[in-house]
Write a sequence for this structure.
């Protein structure tokens, strides 16, 4: 893929300070994108000519509206921001539940809504939402052992919602030359316990957890200007975890 294909194309990336966000930002800059890196905490990021940093709470509708009021052209939006809680289902509080809904669903919706308004006017745009394998299948509690980081029902519910939102947007905005797709990652290595890693690897045909860079190829494909006919798809990148 030639770098000039993406030259000067402006892409918004939410959750830019997270593990996947930092990896995506690095890849996008190398591909020649102009990246607008959005996060509530941008202290660990360094602005460059190709990487603009914006501190933004994506769950605040007024802040999101103000953010988009400064933009007139957008090539892409990557809705990567997400959060989770790890307490047991029986102990879930309403506040915990809604804190995940607000980021994973409301924040994704608000950012997508603002982007669509601009993309409709320009008659072009590519939106990539980040789902999860746990929006496709339920987690297996046996993987987690004694890690005390059981996947939560609300994380699965919201990620399933992100996948369905992607399909809705594809169906309603494809006529404006806006493509909306979703990437659902498998588990990403992030120094989990040895017990968890061994259990997870044993359930994955590829025999390992994902590295952040494992999702770059799917992202490049979905943002590629030569890819004009992929719309409403959920691309699962999980080493085969959901294949059995």
């Amino acid at each position: 893929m030639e770098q000039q294909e993406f030259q000067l194309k402006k892409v918004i990336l939410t959750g830019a300070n997270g593990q996947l966000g930092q990896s995506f930002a690095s890849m996008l800059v190398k591909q020649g994108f102009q990246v607008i890196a959005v996060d509530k905490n941008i202290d660990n990021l360094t602005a460059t000519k190709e990487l603009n940093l914006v501190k933004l709470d994506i769950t605040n509708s007024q802040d999101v509206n103000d953010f988009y009021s400064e933009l007139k052209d957008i090539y892409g939006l990557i809705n990567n921001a997400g959060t989770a809680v790890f307490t047991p289902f029986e102990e879930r509080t309403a506040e915990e539940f809604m804190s995940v809904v607000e980021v994973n669903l409301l924040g994704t919706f608000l950012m997508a809504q603002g982007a669509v308004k601009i993309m409709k006017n320009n008659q072009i745009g590519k939106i990539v939402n980040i789902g999860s394998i746990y929006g496709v299948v339920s987690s297996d509690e046996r993987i987690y052992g004694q890690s005390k980081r059981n996947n939560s029902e609300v994380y699965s519910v919201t990620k399933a919602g992100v996948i369905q939102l992607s399909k809705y947007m594809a169906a309603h905005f494809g006529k404006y030359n806006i493509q909306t797709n979703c990437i659902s990652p498998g588990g990403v290595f992030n120094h989990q316990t040895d017990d968890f890693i061994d259990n997870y690897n044993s359930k994955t045909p590829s025999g390992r957890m994902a590295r952040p860079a494992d999702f770059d190829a799917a992202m490049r494909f979905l943002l590629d200007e030569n890819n004009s006919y992929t719309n409403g798809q959920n691309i699962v990148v999980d080493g085969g975890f959901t294949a059995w």
About this structure: The chain has seven helices and seven strands.
